[in-house]
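Example record

One chain of 408 residues, shown exactly as stored in the release files.
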Amino acid sequence: MNYKSFIKDVERWVVRKALPYLAAGVIVGTALFGGYALANGHHKPGVRTKTEASQSVKNVGKIAFVYDKDGPFEYDKHGFTGDKYEKEIYLFDSNGRKLRQLTKNSGCVEDSEPVWSPDGRWIAFVSDRDDNEEIYALDPSSKTLINLTKNPAEDYDPAWSPDGNKLAFISTRDGNPEVYSMNADGTNQKKLTINPLSDAHPRWLADEKRIIFVSFGKNPSDGTHPETTYSEINVMNQDGSDQKELIYDDYGAVNEVLPSPSASIAAFIEANGNLSIVDINTGKVKTIIDEHTKLPTSIGYTQLGPKVHITEVRFSPDGKKLAAVVSEEGGEPDMLYLMNIDSTINEKIINYAIGSISWSPDGKYIAFSGYHEISNVDVIHGRKKTLIESRYQYYYPEWQPIPKGGRE
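Predicted structure tokens for this chain:
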């Protein structure tokens, strides 16, 4: 199955609407054929279970995540009747204890995309509770909730500046997805791009002065060839000035671009499936994994190709390593690899059904969402620990960062 990362794909409608259907299909098939869901039974949210290895997980902050208690499909006696989403933001300690529900809505409301502020005090997230997508900020300690955008258009994809004073985000308030910024309290909202293309995934660079983002456009049909999508990776100053194109991809398959937390480089997946790094200052591209790279598996090795894809990539907190999820259609479960930036493949950490991933702030663990669970894995020994599981779905595990001064 292509792109098992549930809700990460090239265009926003795929990210937010199509992939949950695909994920649900996998889940239904798994249940019908005696897979993971039935093997483990129907557990209540928050029930911690025995795992393959008796890993003792140190409590390193907290993990926020999205819990979809109703799944993406609604059925009655006549069959499929439509979408039914009730996604809420939850929180627990990183050892799986002290589960808390942070948002509680009535009806079919989606709260998603939780992102911690750099000081670990606030969670920005997207909600359609007001019948359109808005960006909210939530203080888990005081339960203070603020609607930051307050606009009838669609506002989504929030990203904190490294100092925590601003947020970049995408808004359609001018009819086209553009990059905006605002103060952390929602004031001083500014449009940064004026672009006929559709902008997506703004991310702040480590220098705290620039923002990198992706743009998607269409090459119209010439009567002989069909319409095609192309994409660009662009960078600009935080006020929108000095916009520069770093990469042009004629096949439009660049999804998200991920800047390093410690250097002027960013990782991305190319149209041909390669995992590459671009130097943001020079535009020079370095390939980390391509179709010739031999990736170790439990029975030998695999290589990128039409049925083998990289679906998720994340930098380690110190920026020295990359974690990559590789999905192989009809083959092994997803494989999580750890590699140095110099393209040396260290090892395959684990085989499992893996969606989104998030590093612990100390760089020792990676949390990930599975079909019906959130787990973490020790990156040194490859030991997996299930933190929460149920018969429903979990998305977006996000590990709370440790501020520079440490936790209070």
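Notes: Residues 1-55, 72-82 have pLDDT under 50 and may be disordered.
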